[in-house]
Design a protein that fits this description.
The complex is a heterodimer of chains A (about 300) and B (about 425). Chain A has about 300 residues and is an alpha+beta fold. Chain A has 10 helices and 9 strands. In chain A, the strands form 4 sheets. Chain A has a 3-stranded mixed β-sheet. Chain B is mainly alpha-helical. Chain B has a two-stranded antiparallel sheet with strand order 1-2. The longest helix of chain B is centred in the middle third of the chain and has 37 residues, at about 175-210. The chains are: A alpha+beta (about 300), B mainly alpha (about 425).
């Protein structure tokens, strides 16, 4: 069989381009795909053994963030069952079934190193600061799809269900206060320093010191948040199992890593475009055949062909 | 019993039936109710009108109207690939039905999605690529799905419209002949290729949405191959929908059924389902989660219901005799449609344990809005089938309609139309 130069070129291109594109896009290393780490991540360290459950932090949080009084429980204030659109920070009590110790636990946004909500958000309404690593919400970009609520393993982002102009409500480390040189409201009022604020690295070494000084005081002698879901900027020390106080076992991999094949397939939109090119080339050929058949059909039946 | 072999050859409008029927009025009333209720939802917010909460932040508008019904409306995509890419020329006769089911299903799903989002006024950013988070599966859906519905799917549905306009709007005829028909003829292959590339992208991204759900989606459903399984399921659901719609339409409007074409569709669907089921089992085995299928909890029960609903009718339809008997084909098709819809629904709902103990149940308003937009889609289909040459029929039906029109509607003045070659909308030349 003889090949013209054009045919040879086409044959080479049609085989090489797909292979080259796939080779470029698919085998990316995970290290290269990991998001850039914040330069100077700030964080919180919460220690269940120090918390006395006074809820000063809950009230201070509401005041600093100008949240309305949460009166979801009749006759009481700031006593909701869970984080909600009026509560960015909450103290809960873990009540064991038997004689094992009970424990308070503080819940607010974990400010993950690689946050699932930021990976989920279609229009970057939730975004992570390159410097201090705070995960914040930008109202002018949010379409209210609530994918962040589905994606967050800690159930942190909350939605204003009753509003005509609903917002996503979550802890943002009191960023306006930080900019003025203050601490976040919750850490600034804690009377026992059960929750403290500082650079994440300092807090991590401090937590490890506490574990060293009192071995077997803390559950599994480890810090929750050091490696969980790729690491979080809020760290926990607990004397009861983490799962009992609502800290899920999420594994060491960042949650957005589940999307790694999506990222590779859609890289530069190369593979979808390639697929389109292949479909279009097949279609072009079949379209010519189909039109010829339509004309033959018309000659046979005398009826105008339909598409 | 005498068998009459019917061969579907061309689209013929449903004629000699009343356009406005009690059923059609009911569909429109449900649609109107859902529009009123949607306005109320925009005014009152999502909380008072729906059963959604902070734990189950997605309700049936996303999980059913969008994720399930666009899967069911993938006929234009899946039957189209067989007809155009694999060049099954006998399937061209059902393509108009397929692309119309896709069109109404996608639009009703997109409207439900619009009612669902809390801050729709910010959606304009979909036109501004620099605001996109390109790695979000939801962004992919938000861009790709409206693009598919508005460009390739819309253009695929224009030929029947143009055919009608040619006869009903004589003043429009020169424009049709000079501009519309040549434009369609020259762009068709590229647009059609887009009509297969885009659904492959967004139907798989619908599955990718739940990848971020992690272990909260039960292990029998949560898989790295969830996107592939989702687009595959959209493939066979599209066939199930086209078969079901064609049979219901033929039965209710007393039109002849071409059991051979329906059988071809059913056979392709059976093989899609069987290979899909094998792939799903291999995936579960490879992840070492087969034990969960035999845990005999509600998840394993759900898993087996799905599997049996899909596999049993598919095996049943491997025998040609079963495919040729309308009642058997219809029942098997119905079971497959239910099973496939259940599979598309479960990862976001029944198999999604957002938090132990938390529940979501749609409110009455929510369910009425969801049902109302489905009713509007059906109403649009019914109306289109009566006005446009959509549903396939033998050529005799076409001549029958022409005869009927001359007798019943002399005002249409068919004789005055010039039927010579040059002056008809002709996509073939």
């Amino acid at each position: 069989m003889e090949l013209t130069r054009r045919e040879a070129l086409r044959s080479v291109v049609s085989k090489c381009v797909p292979v080259a594109t796939a080779a470029l896009c698919l085998p990316a290393t995970e290290a290269a795909e990991a998001p850039s780490q914040p330069k100077a991540p700030v964080g919180m360290l919460y220690d269940t053994t120090l918390c006395i459950g006074c809820k000063a932090c809950v009230v201070a949080c509401a005041e600093a963030n100008e949240l309305p009084r949460d009166v979801s429980l009749d006759g009481l204030h700031q006593a909701p069952e869970d984080l909600n659109a009026f509560t960015k920070n909450i103290i809960k009590l873990y009540k064991p079934h038997e004689q094992s110790p009970d424990s308070f636990v503080k819940q607010q946004c974990m400010h993950c190193i690689d946050p699932a909500c930021v990976a989920a958000c279609p229009f970057k309404a939730l975004w992570k600061d390159d410097g201090n690593g705070i995960v914040a919400w930008e109202p002018s970009r949010c379409i209210g799809c609530r994918y962040c609520e589905i994606a967050c393993a800690y159930h942190v982002p909350k939605f204003e269900w009753d509003m005509i102009n609903p917002k996503i409500v979550k802890c943002e480390f009191c960023e306006p206060r930080l900019n003025k040189g203050y601490q976040p409201a919750c850490t600034s009022v804690c009377p026992t320093h059960a929750v403290i604020f500082g650079p994440r690295q300092d807090l991590l070494s401090q937590a490890k010191e506490r574990i060293e000084q009192a071995p077997d005081k803390y559950f599994e002698n480890r810090v929750y948040g050091e490696h969980e879901a790729g690491g979080t900027q809020v760290l926990y020390l607990s004397h009861v199992p983490f799962e009992d106080i609502g800290l899920p076992d999420v594994g060491p991999a960042p949650i957005p890593a589940a999307l790694k094949w999506q990222k590779r397939i859609y890289k530069f939109l190369a593979l979808p475009l390639l697929m389109y090119a292949m479909l279009a080339s097949i279609m072009k050929k079949n379209w010519i055949d189909h039109r010829r058949e339509m004309r033959e059909e018309e000659e046979r039946t005398g009826l105008r062909p339909q598409l | 019993m005498k068998h009459i072999i019917v061969r579907w050859q061309r689209g013929v409008p449903v004629y000699a039936v009343p356009k406005i029927t009690p059923f059609f009025v009911f569909l429109c009333a449900m649609g109107a109710l859902s529009i009123v209720l949607s306005a109320y939802r925009e005014w009152a917010g999502l909380g008072p009108t729906t059963g959604m909460n902070d734990i189950y932040a997605w309700g049936i508008w996303k999980t059913f109207n969008t994720m399930v019904l666009t899967g069911l409306g993938s006929g234009g995509f899946s039957v189209g690939i067989a007809a155009w890419i694999f060049y099954r020329r006998d399937l061209h006769s059902v393509m108009r039905t397929a692309v119309l089911t896709s069109f109404v299903a996608y639009f009703s799903g997109l409207v439900a999605l619009g009612v669902d989002v809390g801050r729709p006024w910010n959606f304009y950013q979909v036109l501004m690529p620099w605001t996109w988070n390109a790695h979000s599966p939801l962004l992919e859906v938000a861009v790709c799905m409206p693009l598919y519905a508005c460009v390739p799917l819309f253009l695929e549905n224009t030929p029947p419209l143009i055919e009608r306009w040619y006869y009903t709007w004589p003043w429009f005829r020169p424009f049709i002949m000079k501009h519309l028909v040549p434009a369609i003829r020259s762009t068709y292959p590229y647009v059609i290729a887009l009509a297969y590339a885009l659904p492959m992208m967004h139907q798989s991204s619908l599955g990718a949405l739940m990848l971020l759900g992690g272990s909260r989606v039960h292990v029998l459903w949560q898989s790295p191959f969830l996107p592939l399984l989702y687009v595959w399921a959209a493939g066979f659901l599209g066939y199930a929908c086209v078969i079901g719609v064609l049979m219901v339409a033929c039965l209710s409007w007393k039109r002849p059924m071409d059991m051979r074409i329906l059988g071809v569709l059913a056979r392709i669907m059976s093989w899609l389902i069987l290979t899909w089921s094998v792939f799903r089992f291999v995936d579960i085995l490879a992840r070492g989660q087969i034990g969960a299928a035999f845990a005999f909890d509600r998840f394993s029960l759900l898993f087996w219901i799905e599997t049996l609903l899909l596999v049993c009718p598919s095996v049943f339809m491997l025998w040609g005799g079963n495919r040729r008997i309308p009642s058997r084909l219809f029942q098997a098709d119905l079971l497959i449609a239910v099973g496939g819809m259940l599979y598309r629904y479960d990862p976001t709902s029944f198999a999604f344990t957002a938090r132990p103990g938390a529940v979501y149940f749609p409110s009455a308003i929510e369910a009425l809005i969801a049902a109302g937009y489905v009713c509007l889609a059906i109403a649009a289909f019914v109306l289109a089938a009566k006005y446009l040459p959509i549903l396939p029929a033998p050529v005799s039906a076409w001549h029958g309609m022409e005869h009927y029109a001359r007798v019943v509607h002399p005002d249409w003045k068919l004789e005055t139309h010039d039927f010579s070659h040059q002056n008809r909308p002709h996509f073939a030349n």
